[in-house]
């Protein structure tokens, strides 16, 4: 079987040996343009270009950017066969990036780590600087137990993995085996780390699997020590009390909290005080009427310094507590803020209607009024709210009573 037919199997495009008498203009394109075109194609599409003309027959085999998407295949078995052949028959040239999307809508099957391991090894042996297992279906998490640590490379600077088990051994090896790693994304992973340190990382995104059986069995601290980090995004990490050791270089920070973000209201949290140098800060939680998250964050306020660099602030429901005290406190500490984004949601709206003391928690008439303060550079306030949410009127009243000069306020309903 010809090489192209082996790789083209299951790509739903037949090979062709027909020669046309028409001028072959596509073959006259310069090499640089051909390589540029390949950057915008998936691995399947790149292989399929071999039928375009004689010159294109083997162009795919030297492409340096590969993105393989299982959604294009009828089964995981055929996808695995395609990727195996793709890497087997490509030319022995350096590889820039390999991205794997291992979700097949037409198949209940999924890949094990044993299937993916050879692909990772091929990419890193080919000096890839970017590697991603972007999607993975199935109930079983990917575990590297029993294998030598796969992510070992002096070239790898970008690593995105999905549905992996991430423990202390994983991150320790990552720090020592990837000396130039700058960008790390851990999506839908089991986060059982207690210490995460790196002197090279500049961008870190972590979110946890939604499957409760993969949550850590008990609460422990998660220490993050990354002095050169610029962007930090942590999304609903369960049973980990986050402690930021050195994140002094972070400019953009995003945190999504939920009921398992802290063990209890007495947890000593330094998230907000540790982020005094940020220019963009997002702190989101699903409801103001769940005690743990608001109480833990508010208890850290006395340690906060002035947020002199903060330009953009986004707050979720927790800002409503105690007459919007968190909102007003952070605005007072942010003399150069330019944009404020307040996010209400359906959960909080329902709680407001159901809880008997909900109104007292945010009504400013029930607490002593403080003096107005200046937000000279604040140009825009946007409030997103579920239609019918009565709290938006209270929030606007609080803003009018406390901020001078008052900027433009846009109120935007969101679908319920």
UniProtKB/TrEMBL annotation:
Gene3D superfamilies: Ribonuclease Inhibitor (3.80.10.10). Transmembrane segments: none annotated. Residues 1-24 are annotated as: Disordered. SUPFAM superfamilies: F-box domain, RNI-like. Residues 23-68 form the F-box domain. It comes from the Eukaryota. Pfam families: F-box, LRR_At1g61320_AtMIF1. InterPro entries: F-box-like_dom_sf, F-box_dom, F-box_SCFL_complex_component, LRR_At1g61320_AtMIF1, LRR_dom_sf. This is F-box domain-containing protein. It comes from Oryza sativa subsp. indica (Rice).
